[in-house]
Design the sequence.
C-alpha cells in the first residue's frame, strides 16, 4: 500500500510539472491575443481593456496558479475565441478520437497476431524473414505517408472509401465506420510491427517450454498448439505494449485527424495552435498528458492482475513510476 | 511380435564444436504389457532415445537412415506427421521429468486432460470433463471434482506429476514412456508416483518404458532393464538377473553406488570415478574404458559389440561372470 | 529444413558431418555484411553526396517558378523528375529537401542523445534526489505528446532549420536518458570504478574515463535507430507546414503540396514519398545489420 501511495504521489508531481511546462510554452507564443480579439484598428485602451478582461495583465505565476486550481475543480477555462468551455469542447470531441485510436489498435492487433503466429512457427524460416521484411517496410512508412497513399488508392482511384469526413454513431454503424476505415488503417499499419515483434519473441520462448512439448506428445497439431496453448502465455508483453502504445497513438492521431478531417481532440489542438487560443491549447495538452499518465498507470496495475503467476505489486514498478 | 521395436537408432546434433552423437546404434524391443527400464547417467542418450520413439526430436536433430521404429508393426518413419500425431497421446504417451513446467500454466487441469479425450476419442465437453474427474481420482488426487477446474500453480509438484500421468493415461495408450518421472520430486513423493505407474501399467496391460538414472527406481518395477552409456546399450537383462549378476563393470559400479539400508552407518558411498565421455569426439574403443578398473589395451583400441540376442546381452571385453559381491 | 528431423541420404554419421560442415560455412557467411547492408548503404551514400553537392549540380534553383512549365511529368526535357504546380523542378527540390531531412536526421538525435547522456549519467551516478528530479522531469516530458510540443515550438520559435533540429532533439532526450541511466547504474558499482575512486579520481574523471566508454555502445545503437525516426517526424512536421519555412523545400512539404493535385499530377507527391520511404528503409535495414553484427562480436568478447 505505501508503494501505491508513493506512485500516486509521484504521478501528481509529474502532472504538475506537465502543467508548468505547458503553461510556459503557451505563454511564450508570439502574437498578442488581446490585439487579435480587439481587431487591427482598435485603440490602445480597448486592447488594454480586453487584456484585463481575459486576465493577461496579471503576472505569470498568478495566471498559472489560477489556471491550475481551476483544473483541479473541473474548470478548465474558456476559449477566448468561441467562448466555449474548454472542458466541454474536449469532451465533445473525445468520442471521435477514442474511436480512431480503438479502431487503429484493432487493425494493429488483427495484423500482429496472425503474423506473429506464422513467424514463431518456423523462426528464421522463409515466412519469418518475409514478414520481418514487411515489418521493416511498415516501420519506414510513417502514418501520414500511408494516409496519402491510401487516399490515392481507395478514394481517388477506386472511389470505394471517402477521403475525409466523420459521422457520429447516431447516423448508423456502417455510416460511422466507413469514413474511419482509412484513418484506422493509416495508424494501424504502423503500430502492428511493434506488437508483432513482441508477441513473436515471447512466443518463441514459450514454444520451448516443457508444457508445449507435452502438448506435442499428446498429439496436438501445430495450429492448435500455437493458438490454444502458446498464445495466452505469450501475450502478456504484447498486452502491456498495447497499453503503452496509447501514448504514441495520441500523437499519431493528431496528424491523422488533421488529414482526414476527423473532429477529434487532436484536430482541436492543431486548430487552437494556429489560432493562438491559449486556453484551449493548455487544456488539450494537459488532457493528452493526463490520459497518457493514467493509461500507463492502469496498464502497470493490470499487468499484475492479468498474469495469474504474478502476485503482489511492484512487478514493473521501475518502468514508469 | 513386440509392441515396440527399435532397430539401429542413431541420432546426432550439430553443435558449434562439431557433430554430437547422442544415440549410436541402439536396438531394443518392448512386449505388450511389459515394463522396460532404461538406466543411464545424464548424457547417456536415454532421453533422446525416448524423444526419437515419439517422433519429438528437435528440428536440428539428424537421424540415421538405417533407423527403424515400429509400433504394433507399423513403421513410424514411414508415417506422415499427421498420422504420427494421431498416434501420439493415443497409442503412445509420455510423462516428462519436470512437473513444475510440464503443465500449461494458464489452462485448467480438466482442460488439459480433456483435450486429448476430445481430440483423439471425439468426446463431448461434458463427457470429457466427467472422464477427467475419473482419471484424476484414478491417479490418486484428492477431491478430483474440485481440482478439475484448478490451475497447475495451485498444486504441489507431486500432485502435478499425477496430473501429468492422468493426461498420459487419458486415451488408454498401449505404450507409456516415463522420462525420469520422479527425478525432480522429493524422495517421499517418489515412491508414490512410481507405485502409481506400476499399478496403472498392470491394470491396463500397458507397456511402459521407465527411464531413470537411478537403478533403485527400476528394482521391483521393471521386468527388464537396459543400461545405456554414451549413446549405446551396454547391458540388458531381466531385472533380477541384472541385479544378481551384472556383467559389465559399469553396471556393477552403478549397483555399488546405491546406498542400502543394511549398510553400516558411515560407509562411504562408492562413486564411479571420472566423467562421461565427450560425445562429439569420443575416444576410440570402449567408451567406458577411461573410467574402468578392468580396462585393457583391447578395451581402449576396439569398442566391444553387444553380444547377440537372448534375454541377457552385454558389451564388454571383460565381463564378470560370477555373482556380484 | 524439414519440420520433422530429416533422414540422411547415406547411413552413418559421415554424411551427417558433411551436412554439418555446410551449416558451419553458412554461419560464417552470415557474419559478413551482405547485400542487405550494401544496397541500402549505397543509396544513402549517393543521397548524401547528391544532397551535399546540390547547389553545384547545375540544376534549376529549387524555388524558381516557371509559369511556362507547370505540372510537367517526369522524364520531360530539362526536368528529369518533372515540375510541380508552380513549375519548380522536382529533382532540385528533392535534393534540397534532402539536405533538410538529412541534417535534421543526424542533428536531432545527436542533440537528444547529448543532453540525455548528461542527464542519465548524473541520475545514474549520483542517485538520490538528482535521480528523482531527473526521473520526474523525464516522465513529464514523455507525457506531453511529441507532436504537441513540436507544434508549440514551431509556433513559438519560428521555422528555421536549427530550431527544428533543436526541438526534435528534445524529443529524444527521455529515451537516451533512460538508457544511459540504466547502463550507468550497472557500471557505476563495478570494482574498477571503486578502484578509480580509491586512487583519488574525481567524479567527473570517473564518469568520463571509466563509465562513459562502457556505455557508449548501446547509445550508438540507439542513435542509429533514431536517425530514421527523426527523418520521419520532420516529414510529418513539414507536412503540416511547421518545419522550415517556404521557399526552402522539404520532403513533407512537397508531399503536402502535391496532395491537392494528386489526381492529375500524382508524381508531385509520390516522388518525395518514395524518396523518404527508401531513405528511411535504408537507414533501418543498414542500421539493423550493423547492430546485429556488432552486438554479436561484442557479446562474444564479453
Sequence:
Amino acid at each position: 500500500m505505501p508503494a501505491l501511495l508513493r506512485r500516486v504521489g509521484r504521478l501528481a508531481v509529474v502532472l504538475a510539472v506537465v502543467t508548468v511546462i505547458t503553461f510556459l510554452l503557451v505563454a511564450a507564443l508570439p502574437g498578442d491575443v488581446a490585439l487579435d480579439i480587439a481587431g487591427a484598428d482598435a485603440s490602445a485602451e480597448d486592447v488594454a481593456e480586453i487584456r484585463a478582461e481575459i486576465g493577461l495583465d496579471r503576472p505569470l505565476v498568478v495566471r498559472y496558479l489560477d489556471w491550475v486550481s481551476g483544473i483541479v475543480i473541473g474548470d478548465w477555462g474558456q476559449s477566448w475565441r468561441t467562448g466555449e468551455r474548454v472542458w466541454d469542447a474536449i469532451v465533445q470531441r473525445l468520442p471521435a478520437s477514442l474511436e480512431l485510436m480503438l479502431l487503429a489498435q484493432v487493425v494493429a492487433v488483427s495484423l500482429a497476431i496472425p503474423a506473429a503466429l506464422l513467424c514463431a512457427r518456423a523462426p528464421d524460416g522463409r515466412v519469418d524473414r518475409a514478414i520481418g521484411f514487411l515489418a521493416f517496410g511498415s516501420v519506414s512508412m510513417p502514418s501520414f505517408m500511408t494516409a496519402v497513399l491510401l487516399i490515392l488508392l481507395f478514394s481517388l482511384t477506386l472511389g470505394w472509401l471517402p477521403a475525409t469526413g466523420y459521422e457520429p454513431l447516431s447516423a448508423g454503424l456502417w455510416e460511422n465506420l466507413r469514413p474511419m476505415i482509412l484513418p484506422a488503417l493509416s495508424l494501424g499499419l504502423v503500430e502492428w510491427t511493434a506488437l508483432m515483434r513482441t508477441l513473436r519473441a515471447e512466443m518463441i520462448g514459450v514454444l520451448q517450454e516443457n508444457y508445449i512439448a507435452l502438448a506435442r506428445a499428446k498429439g496436438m497439431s501445430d495450429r492448435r498448439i500455437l493458438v490454444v496453448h502458446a498464445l495466452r502465455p505469450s501475450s502478456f508483453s504484447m498486452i502491456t505494449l498495447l497499453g503503452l502504445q496509447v501514448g504514441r497513438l495520441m500523437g499519431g492521431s493528431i496528424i491523422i485527424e488533421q488529414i482526414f478531417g476527423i473532429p477529434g481532440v487532436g484536430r482541436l489542438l492543431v486548430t487552437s495552435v494556429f489560432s493562438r487560443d491559449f486556453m484551449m491549447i493548455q487544456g488539450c495538452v494537459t488532457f493528452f498528458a493526463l490520459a497518457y499518465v493514467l493509461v500507463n498507470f492502469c496498464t502497470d496495475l493490470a499487468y499484475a492482475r492479468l498474469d495469474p503467476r504474478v502476485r503482489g505489486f511492484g512487478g514493473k514498478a521501475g518502468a514508469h513510476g | 511380435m513386440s509392441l515396440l521395436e527399435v532397430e539401429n537408432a542413431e541420432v546426432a546434433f550439430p553443435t558449434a564444436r562439431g557433430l554430437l552423437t547422442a544415440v549410436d546404434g541402439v536396438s531394443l524391443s518392448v512386449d505388450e504389457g511389459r515394463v522396460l527400464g532404461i538406466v543411464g547417467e545424464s548424457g547417456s542418450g536415454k532421453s533422446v532415445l525416448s524423444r526419437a520413439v515419439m517422433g519429438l526430436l528437435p528440428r536440428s536433430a539428424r537421424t540415421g537412415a538405417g533407423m527403424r521404429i515400429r509400433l504394433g508393426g507399423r513403421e513410424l518413419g514411414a508415417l506422415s506427421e499427421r498420422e504420427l500425431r494421431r498416434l501420439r497421446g493415443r497409442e503412445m504417451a509420455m510423462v516428462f521429468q519436470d512437473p513444475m513446467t510440464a503443465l500449461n500454466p494458464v489452462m485448467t487441469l480438466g482442460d488439459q486432460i480433456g483435450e486429448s479425450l476430445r481430440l483423439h476419442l471425439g468426446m463431448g465437453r461434458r463427457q470429457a470433463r466427467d472422464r477427467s474427474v475419473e482419471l484424476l481420482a484414478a491417479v490418486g488426487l484428492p477431491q478430483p471434482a474440485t481440482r478439475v477446474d484448478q490451475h497447475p500453480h495451485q498444486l504441489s509438484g507431486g500432485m502435478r506429476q499425477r496430473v501429468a500421468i492422468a493426461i498420459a493415461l487419458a486415451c488408454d495408450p498401449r505404450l507409456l514412456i516415463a522420462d525420469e518421472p520422479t527425478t525432480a520430486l522429493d524422495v517421499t513423493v517418489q515412491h508414490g508416483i512410481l507405485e502409481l505407474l506400476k499399478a496403472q501399467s498392470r491394470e491396463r496391460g500397458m507397456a511402459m518404458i521407465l527411464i531413470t538414472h537411478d537403478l533403485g527406481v527400476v528394482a521391483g518395477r521393471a521386468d527388464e532393464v537396459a543400461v545405456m552409456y554414451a549413446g549405446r546399450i551396454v547391458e540388458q537383462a531381466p531385472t533380477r538377473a541384472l541385479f544378481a549378476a551384472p556383467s559389465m563393470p559399469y553396471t556393477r559400479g552403478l549397483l555399488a553406488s546405491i546406498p542400502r539400508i543394511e549398510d553400516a552407518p558411515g560407509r562411504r558411498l562408492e562413486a564411479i570415478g571420472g566423467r562421461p565421455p565427450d560425445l562429439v569426439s569420443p575416444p576410440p574403443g570402449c567408451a567406458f574404458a577411461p573410467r574402468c578398473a578392468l580396462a585393457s589395451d583391447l578395451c581402449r583400441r576396439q569398442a566391444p559389440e553387444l553380444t547377440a540376442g537372448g534375454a541377457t546381452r552385454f558389451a564388454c571385453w571383460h565381463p564378470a561372470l560370477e555373482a556380484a559381491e | 529444413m524439414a519440420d520433422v528431423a530429416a533422414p540422411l541420404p547415406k547411413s552413418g554419421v559421415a554424411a551427417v558431418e558433411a551436412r554439418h560442415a555446410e551449416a558451419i560455412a553458412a554461419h560464417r557467411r552470415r557474419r559478413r555484411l551482405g547485400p542487405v547492408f550494401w544496397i541500402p548503404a549505397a543509396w544513402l551514400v549517393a543521397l548524401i553526396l547528391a544532397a551535399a553537392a546540390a547547389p553545384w549540380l547545375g540544376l534549376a534553383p529549387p524555388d524558381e517558378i516557371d509559369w511556362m512549365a507547370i505540372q510537367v511529368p517526369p522524364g520531360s526535357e530539362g526536368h528529369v523528375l518533372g515540375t510541380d504546380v508552380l513549375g519548380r523542378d522536382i529533382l532540385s527540390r528533392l535534393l534540397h529537401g534532402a539536405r533538410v531531412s538529412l541534417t535534421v536526421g543526424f542533428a536531432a538525435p545527436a542533440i537528444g542523445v547529448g543532453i540525455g547522456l548528461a542527464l542519465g549519467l548524473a541520475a545514474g551516478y549520483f542517485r538520490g534526489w538528482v535521480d528523482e528530479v531527473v526521473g520526474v522531469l523525464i516522465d513529464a516530458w514523455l507525457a506531453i505528446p511529441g507532436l504537441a510540443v513540436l507544434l508549440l515550438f514551431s509556433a513559438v520559435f519560428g521555422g528555421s532549420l536549427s530550431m527544428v533540429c533543436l526541438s526534435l532533439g528534445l524529443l529524444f532526450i527521455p529515451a537516451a536518458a533512460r538508457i544511459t541511466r540504466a547502463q550507468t547504474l550497472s557500471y557505476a558499482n563495478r570494482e574498477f570504478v571503486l578502484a578509480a575512486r580509491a586512487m583519488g579520481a574525481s567524479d567527473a574523471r570517473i564518469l568520463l574515463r571509466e563509465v562513459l566508454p562502457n556505455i557508449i555502445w548501446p547509445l550508438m545503437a540507439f542513435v542509429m535507430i533514431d536517425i530514421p525516426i527523426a527523418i520521419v517526424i520532420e516529414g510529418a512536421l513539414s507536412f503540416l507546414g511547421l518545419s522550415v519555412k517556404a521557399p526552402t523545400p522539404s520532403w513533407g512539404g512537397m508531399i503536402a503540396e502535391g496532395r491537392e493535385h494528386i489526381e492529375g499530377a500524382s508524381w508531385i507527391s509520390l516522388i518525395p514519398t518514395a524518396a523518404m520511404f527508401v531513405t528511411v528503409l535504408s537507414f533501418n535495414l543498414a542500421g539493423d545489420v550493423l547492430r546485429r553484427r556488432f552486438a554479436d562480436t561484442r557479446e562474444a568478447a564479453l
User: Anything to note?
Assistant: Residues 222-260 of chain A form the longest helix (39 residues). Chain A touches chain B at residues 209-211, 213-221, 224, 228-229, 232-233, 308-309 (CB under 8 Å). The radius of gyration of chain A is 24 Å. Confidence is low (pLDDT under 50) at residues 310-321 of chain A.
